[in-house]
Structure formats: structure tokens, C-alpha cells
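Hi Y.,

Following your request, here is the sequence exactly as I used it, all 844 residues.
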Amino acid sequence: MAEPIVSEDGGASALPPRFDPAFYLATNPGLDVTPSEAEAHYDREGRARGLVASPLALRENLVAMIADGRSVLEIGPFCNPLLKGPSVAYLDVLDAGQLRARAQAIGLDPAGCPDHVDYVGGLEQVRRRFDAVISSHAIEHQPDIVHHLQQIERILEPDGLFCLIIPDKRYCLDHFLAESTIAQVLQAHREQRRTHSLASIVEHVALTTHNDSHRHWQGDHGDAVPTDRAARLRKAMHDHDFALGRYVDVHAWYFTPDRFAEIVEALEALGLIGLELAGVYDTAHGRNEFCAVLRLSAEARRIAAAAVRGPEITLVQFAGKAEDAAARLATAPNIQAYARRHGYRYALAQADAGSLSGAGWAVLFGPHHFVGDLDFDLAHYVRGRDGRLAVLPSEGDLALGAWGMAPWLLNLGHAGARRLVQTVEAAHDSGPADPSAVLVRLSEGDALSVDRDPQLGGRHAAFLRVASAEPTSSAGLEALAIAVKASLASADETIMPVRSTAGGDRWSARYAHPHGLAPPLIEAPIPVPDVSAAARLRTMWEAAGGAGEAELPDRLRPVAAMLATAEDERLAEDLAALGRSSAAQGLLGGDRQHARAADPAFAAKLSRWTYDKLVSLAEAVGCLRLENPEGGPWGDNGRRDPAELFAAIESALGADLSPPSSIGAYLGIGVGRGRVIHMRMLDAIHAAWRMGQLATQMEDPGAPDGAVHVGEVGAGIGLAAYYARRLGQPRWTLFDDATPALLQRHVAGEAVAAMPVSQLAQAKIDLLLNCDSLPELPRESSLAILRSAYAAGVGLIVSINQEAPLPGVVPVSTLVAQAGGYALASRHRHWLRSGHVEEVFRRS
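Below is the corresponding structure, written out as C-alpha cells. Let me know if you'd prefer a different format.
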């Protein structure tokens, strides 16, 4: 094989030519031709006979060319991957478990299937570049080849290669089908096909012949018209119609080497792809496939080379003690999968860190640590931390007894990195040490920073995660195995069904979609506590008469105590970590939800519920078409990427819907750009959007800009007001008692107006919103609020509430009828909240 060389323009390596005379004569020693006559002989008869004229005409040589440790993505490995190893990632339409089941169902050995599929679905989810991509008998299955090649272009390194093994239609089951044309390729791309047409399914099911390549080379192609053609045609139409728009696995394209080259060259000339032919190799005798290699064009290489590259990152897993072997074996597949997915280096180290070297970041995993979210953007997380020596979870978690007992991010490019390694190892050699003393010594000139960051450590950390407070116990190891399996399953987009147990029926009723993902449950990062903001909020609380509040729910008493004693620093810390505060119970999870989420089963349900709400919100605002069980695709909406869904919602609503930067520690799912969304935030986005829709139907002549003034009674924790401002609706007043109003203004912003409910009758409000409180308040309190709204001249009342027949629960419609002054204008089930109804009452 030719030695690889780099072209002058920095392009991909040179490859063996389609015809190599020396190789041709050496491989076919019976030929009576001279080297000068070899190519003419090949063109005249050798090619038609299938004589091998280049090493890359054979799949084994193509595979061997890239089996040198470079990063490779293999598309469609099924149960016989072409390549294996830590630098190889896999993409398939099925996850590993589904591949094994399919192999077993058709009589193949399931043991050959990969242990883990890194990407399940399409190339769109791949967010890194590879040195090579290889596919065998896959491109002919792509409904839109142009889109497929565009995605390949996006994920190739500047010098990367796309290696293809493609069926030659002359020597396989497609023999009697016409070669595909550039016209058909362009038509499919113009239609943005994601599933196969009826014509493709009919051709594959009803019009193909046998697949014995040796018979085809001997001229035996079978019957051009199958004897059972009518039955096969009926089956093809049945397969198409009952797929209901889902993907059916058939060939859509029929190539010969010349036709494939012609189509690729045409697409490049049209500017539809930034790929060019590096080589197309003829089909060898007795085989039914040819090989081809594509690479980036000169312009595409320039663009790829100019792209911003992330920092060099190495994932270091420490072996630990002998008793840690089971934990390390359980977590290693997870860490290795994350490394493959993002292109990071993986290394297994012993008990010390003396071998660490390089200029990038090293992530130090103990035997019991694993990656919670395999899509976590670590490059984004460390970007801007170049001045940090290390990132640690907290001083309390810094264990000096052995490297890796606490999760570390170590900046190897920092001048103090080597001294940190030496200091910690010296402390380890001399016995137990005081972590704070070591930090003091290191801080002299090294600027070591210790973060209280829930991305590192904890059972719901987005990145470095532990599964149990007692990881070495048998129960801890079992919890670790379950958690690691769940992390791999979520990356495979495995559907996690809800079991119908005693309480399962009620849980399953919360989901609007029959199938759905359960992304990892993540704890949101905690922002830096803002003591000055806490002091300002306390001043507002005092001015609102907070010190004189007679009765408070138990959940609010700790906050009220800090306010009463002016403990601004403690208050600031509590507000920053609001998601796990008792004050957030029922509104943003709170400490009770954190305690329940220690159970992996509950955590999976909570993440699935949150994701289901995200899908429903996308459907509500029109990002996703609503599925119809009577026809069309079914069950696809609940399998979309959360980050793509959230970005589509932001685009549809024309706003940045990032969560409030003032709060953290709540449990939710990742939605891209390092953001974590809680389910109540999704409810709030929907409520704010609906208020905007209703506000456009009203006018406020008294307002300088004509903006409708919205009031919210019982505003929870202020999320609807926060998102209303994000959606361009600034005139929003909160009506609540002083202590809950303080939390609401912390979340929504101090500029949001807040008033006690007793002043509602004197306020100038156009539209009044209530969620989750009117039916459950004492009847007289609810009636007083509704009568005050009428006295204030409120034109519309919007209620998002339940009306279950429970003790003390009075439906809002009953309350409105008793209070008088309003008539029902609309009533319908809520998009996101099962068991809740949205009602709009108009002033009568």
C-alpha cells in the first residue's frame, strides 16, 4: 500500500490509485502482459473479470488502513463491527440491547454486537470530529444521501477520511433495478426525505432477486419477474402503509462504482457537499461490493481547520485498591463511552498521579465515579478556567488519603499543577492530613480554587457522579451498577417504560406520550451567593411587613428566621441553592424532592416526567406536529433530543429561555449550553406564553404603550413572572404575602412589582392569573380574591388549576359562579399538566 503523505494544501492523505500496475501484476500472476500494457489490459478485460487492481478494492485493506489508533466512527456495526478499540465509536439506529435482540431473532450471534452504541439514531447528534468515518452497506439505505454526506462533512477532521463499502447493484439482490441517477438524488434532497418512499419499499421487497454474488458473476441472476410478484407487491404496500411514516429498512439507491463517482462529483460541483472523491475502487470477482473513499474539499478543509477547537482533555480513571476492582469494572464502560463520544483520551492509572503530563485538563475519576450525562459539554465547562489550577467539588470532599477518592479537574497547563501533585502525594505518604492546611500551602502563588459545584460529585451531578453515600458496600455497588447502566441507556436513547404497579397507573397518566426518553436527572449548578442582593430583598421584606406575618407554612420558617435576624450571608447561600431548600417544596423541588430522588426509580420517573413536559411544550408552541394515533407517525415525538427541542422552542417564541441565573441546586434535565431545566420552569414558560397570547386580545388605553398589566395571585416561586419578562411582557405584579413575595422577586427579578393580596382591589390590573391555589384556599379567601379582581376592573381571569373531588378542593368554576361578575369564555385540558384545566373567565 502507498505510504500516506500530506498534500501541499494540507488536505487528506494520499491513497493508492484505482489502478496500480505493479499491484495488478503481482496479484494476478497468470497475466501475460508487460507493466506498460497492464492498464490497457485492465480497461479492456480485467475490470469486467473483477481482477483486483488496487489494495483498496478489498474491504479488509480499507479497514486495515484506518485501524491504526486514529479516532473512527463506525456507522451500522450490527453484530460484526469492522473495528474495535477505545478510539472507535459506534452509531446505529438501534441501541446495543436492540441489536442483540435483532441478531438473535434472525439467527446471528448476538455476542458479536458492541457492548455499547455511542450514538443511537442519526448523525445529527454527533457533536465532535473524527479522523475517519466508515460504513459498510449503509449509504444505500439513506433516504436523503445529500443530507447524510453533509453530516459526514460536519464531523470529519480536516484530514479525515470517509471510507465506504457499497453494494454493487450488478452482483447483489438489486441486479434488475436501474442505477440511481443524480436527478433522483436531488429530488429526495429537495423533499427532505427522512423515511423511504413507497417506490423504494416496493423495489426492495418485490422487485429484487437473489443475493448470491458468485451466481451473479457466473451470469445467473435469477428471475427478472419473481413468480410470487403479486404477493410481494401486496406485502410491500402493506409494509409502507402500516409503518405509519416510520423508517423501513430497505435499499433506496443502486450504485456501480462509475455511477457513485458521477453522483458525488455532481453534488460537489453543485456546492451541496464539501466532500470530494479520494478514490473509487472497482468490484473484485466473487464479491458484491466496491470500496470508495471521500475526503473534505479544499474549502471544507479550510473551514474545518479554522473551527474553534476545544481544550485537550484526558479522562484518568484510578484503579484504586483491590476491593475497588468491581466498582472500577462497572464504571469503566461509562467513562470510555464518554471519551469516545467527545474525542477525549482515556487512561487507567494506579494509585498515584505521578505519570500525569501534558498541557490540557485531566479529569480524575475514582473507582466509584462515573459520568452522569454523556452529553455533558466538558469543553465548555473548563473554557475560561485556564487560570485555575484545579476545580474541586468542595473542601469537605477533598480526600488526601488517595488520588481519585474525590473528583478532581486538574489543569496540567498551570504552573502549579506539578506542585499540587507532589504536595498531595506527600500528604498521602505521611499519613492523614488536614485538607485546609494543604490548600493554604498551595494557595501561595498557585491560586487554587475550590468550587461548591454540583457538576462534580453527588448523586445527581451533571458530570462527575457517585451513586451511593456508601459506595463500597454491596448495596452501594448494586446502586452503582444500576446508575451506570441508566447513564448508558439514556445515551442510547433507550425508551424506559413505566411499570404499572400499585402507584404506577397514576404516574403513567402524567405522561402525554406513550414512549419517551428518560434523560439523566441533573442538579443545576449553584451560583455565587449574592449577599448584597439578599440584603436588598430583606429590606423590601421588612418594608412589606414581613416581620409581622402571623402564620407561615413550615417550609418558609427557616427563611423567615434568617430574615428576622438579618443573617444576610446565610440567606444569600440559601437563595443561591434554592432548589434544595425547604422553601422550594412543591415549587422547585426542594429538599424533599432531593431526598426522594435518592431512589433511582423515582429519579428516572422525575426525569421522564420533565422530558415529557418539554415535548408537550414543543407541541403547544408549534415546534412539533401533534401526533395522531389514527394515522401517520406515532411515538416519534417522545424520542427527540432535549437540547434540540428546547432550542426550537426558544426560536419559536423568539426569546432566550435560560433558567434564572440567581438560583441553582434544583433537579432537572440538560437542555444544551450547560443549562438545566426544572419541570416547573416548563409549566411557567407555558403560562407566560399563554398570558402573552391573551394579552394581545386586550387593550389598556391607560398604559403609555398600551401594554396589558398582568397580576398573579399565589405566584409560586416567581417563575411565570420571570419568563413573562423574557417574552417581552414587563408589566407583571405579584400578589402574595411578604415572605413568599421575597422568594418570587429573587427569582423573577427585584424590578418585578409585589403587593399584598389585600391591595388587589385597589390595583390597576387587566388580566389576573392563578395557578395551583384558588381551589385549595379556604373558600372565603378565594371568593375575596375574585371579588377584589372585579373591584379592580380585571377584564380576564385565567385559572390553571385542578378540580379533583378532594376534601377542601372547590373547582374554580364554582368559586367564580359564587363570586359573580365573570362568565366562562373558554375551558380545555392543559397542554403540560395532566389533571389540570385552563379556564378563562371574561368580565360580564
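The mean pLDDT is 86.

Thanks again,
Q.
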